[in-house]
Amino acid sequence: MKLFLKLTVIAVTLAGLISCGGKSNNASLTGWGAKDKAAGGFSTPKQYKGQKTPPGMVLVEGGTFTMGHVQDDVMFDWNTTPQKQQVRSFYMDETEVTNQEYIFYLEWLEKVFPPHNENYKYIYQSALPDTLVWRNRLGFNESLTETYLRHPSYSDYPVVGISWVQATDYCKWRTDRLNEKILMDKGIIKNLFSLDSLRVEGKDHFVTDTYLLNPNYMFDGDSTIYNKGLPTKQVRKRGDPRPQRGAFSGRHVKTSDGILMPKFRLPTETEWEFAAKALSENREYNDLRGRKKFPWNGRYTRNKSNKYRGDQLANFKLGKGDYSGIAGWSNDGADITISVRSYPPNANGLFDMAGNVAEWVADVYRPIIDTEANDFNYYRGNTFSKPKIDREGKVVIADYTTIDYDTLDNGKIIPADQPGNIIYIPITKRDAFMRNNYEKSYNVDYRDGDLASTQEYEEDEDELETQPRMYNHPIIPKELGEGGMRRQIYDNKTRRTLVSDKTRVYKGGSWMDREYWLDPAQRRYLPQYSATSFIGFRCAMDRLGAMKEDNRKPYPSKK
User: Fold this and answer.
1) Measured between alpha carbons, how far is 131 from 36 in angstroms, rounded to an integer?
2) Whole-angstrom Cα distance, residue 402 to residue 391?
3) Domains (range + CATH), the chain
4) Confidence tier at 485 by pLDDT (50, 70, 90)
5) pLDDT, tens digit, for every residue of 123-163?
6) Which of 92, 237, 246, 443 has the fewest CB atoms found within 10 Å of its own CB?
7) ∠ CA 159-532-68, rounded to 5°
8) What angle do CA 180, 181, 185 make, to 5 degrees?
């Protein structure tokens, strides 16, 4: 009996020591415990279990890799010189965005911003894919212009005819729809689409940034659209009126709750190439064995397994006049695009990172990857901004009655800011005063096209009448024609380059490319307003916190 009591005392003592050590990692530095903070109305630590994988995505664990080509530069572009880069962990779509997913986007826009309303006329039109990309002067493809986007035969095929601008807008919309669904599932917002259709028309729709700023800025200030909200520990005092049944109580969701998802976006060029190469399968401890030419291991494009021996591992152009191979044998299964997931995924679980369609990435194109300036999560295209504030000190929200439109260089009309969104403006030099990490808002042409990289580098940018240009690309005239639209005038001057600050990178081979372009390191570019029959896109999302899900646990304190 005495031995049992001794063992019990020792066990309790050890448990106390372990628990003290564990608690010290979360102890308040001021001595205020969680209960003390809650009683005082302060926020308290939540039982946050980590970021969940977004629907349709996989986690790509970050790391270091050599970005650039592994084969001869037969095109002599000299724009894929190997560079060592560090990539942060991120999430990426398993497949390209398909026709059926994009049609949901179009149907939503048509419901919320009906085209028959003159005020919303161009919102829906600006999102429509260019189905005429299938036309060819000497090709019989007219049926594809009418069926590829909407016919169920192509529902699981990657959407094409999408410009970089449209792909970016889709990412913003997808962010709002995912967070809206999260809040509806938690009962914080009523199911908008089960109510009268007027509930979601125009100003009555959900925007993540606007909700986090002030939920009353949405739904015309109608708080009945919200349910009880998150529970609070504040006690109702005696004499206070009882809230009406169904009225909002508690509080709204904040970023610190970890409930809402980060923003969807296009992957950067560095992220896309890192994810496509999937070098982790060649890892041996903390080293890599060899370099990969394709998203899969090996020097060739044919499958080596016994069951599928000889079949192609991607959808690409096999040779001149040969897009699919001989019928019934060694066939890649497609003459144009093909349904996603038709080929094996790479080691990261990503499908079609070579072939099928090439994909837009976020970066502005420049021939050189400037690792001397940055070798951590490299990206070219930053324009730092801030919310616009009116004279009353309030954040400006894009109005629903007076929508501003912009005309792209190809004549397509798009809304400058979609109604309900926060309007952002470039930061000023005052905002960046005495900072050592950036000096101005516009950093797209930093060290490659800006004033400092020209022969007028000693001049003051604000005192110059015309900004010197390193790249002699066309400048579309600003004259406006009838109806306030920009005139469409062809540029007839001799140009030395197509590179501009509106030129975006696209990566990967497509159904109409030869094997050479299946190398993830290859990079090409087009104006951000252009669309083709061979470029699609997929979304990415930041990974918050630990690089991987099974992160190492903190060591206990010695106290």
Assistant:
1) 61
2) 19
3) 52-186+259-379+505-549 (3.90.1580.10)
4) low
5) 999 999 999 999 999 999 999 999 999 999 999 999 999 99
6) 237
7) 95
8) 120
